[in-house]
From TrEMBL:
HAMAP family: MsrA. This is Peptide methionine sulfoxide reductase MsrA. Pfam families: PMSR (PF01625). It is an enzyme of class 1 (oxidoreductase). Has an important function as a repair enzyme for proteins that have been inactivated by oxidation. Catalyzes the reversible oxidation-reduction of methionine sulfoxide in proteins to methionine. The keyword Oxidoreductase applies.
């Protein structure tokens, strides 16, 4: 019953698992598709974007296929437990959502284009679920790394929300919050580029079929 409760309830810091001072597993050095470093250092001029849009296996593939993306990695973000494991996150007792970190060259792919891909690749109106995947770890989220990213994310949300309403969808439930104090914890090695290693593996990513307006925010970065 406790597990079921935390499928639809974010734990408070007091309720969350205590975690650990450091990661208890290794993360691969290189991206299996792009050949780039997963944990950095990253090239000068690249920037970071963090997105949660359901099961991170299929979500990561959406971004590594995008021109201008230097590297991608999956992990856990937005919760309370330091250095969680996959099983802990899936229990709902950490408060994290499954996230994709995207390291990109803004001269090639602007942040607004990544936001468009984010919105159109999932259903952001479902709360603590994404399709048949149910739980707080599947909630929609954008964690921003600058005021410009925050402004662009909020503007794109508002524009897309209006478009979705005309198609009969409810309000967007995506949380848009600064990445400050919401660290990204890389996931276990077998999750990284999972669908490259397992081409026939599960992919729960599916959008609404409604196009997201672009050019809704002048800021980038």
């Amino acid at each position: 019953m406790l597990f079921s409760r935390f499928k639809n309830h974010l734990p408070t810091p007091e309720e969350a698992l205590k975690g650990r001072p450091e990661r208890e597993f290794a993360v691969p050095d290189r991206h299996t598709v792009l050949g780039t470093s997963l944990l950095g250092p990253y090239p000068e001029g690249t920037e970071i974007a963090d997105f949660g849009l359901g099961c991170f296996w299929g979500a990561e593939r959406k971004f590594w296929q995008t021109e201008g993306v230097h590297t991608t990695l999956v992990g856990y973000q937005g919760g309370h437990t330091p250095h969680p494991t996959y099983d802990e996150v899936c229990s709902g007792h950490t408060g994290h959502t499954e996230a994709v970190r995207v390291v990109y060259d803004p001269a090639v792919v602007p942040y607004t284009a990544l936001l468009k891909l984010f919105w159109e690749s999932h259903n952001p109106t479902q709360g603590f679920r994404q399709g048949n995947d149910v739980g707080t770890q599947y909630r929609s989220a954008v964690y921003t790394h600058s005021p410009a990213q925050q402004q662009a994310a909020e503007a794109s949300r508002d524009a897309y929300a209006e478009t979705l309403r005309t198609r009969g969808y409810p309000d967007i439930t995506t949380e848009i919050l600064p990445a400050t104090d919401r660290p990204f914890y890389p996931a276990e090695g077998y999750h990284q580029q999972y669908l490259d290693k397992n081409p026939a593996g599960y992919c729960g990513i599916g959008g609404t079929g409604v196009s997201c307006p672009v050019g809704v925010a002048p800021a980038d970065g």
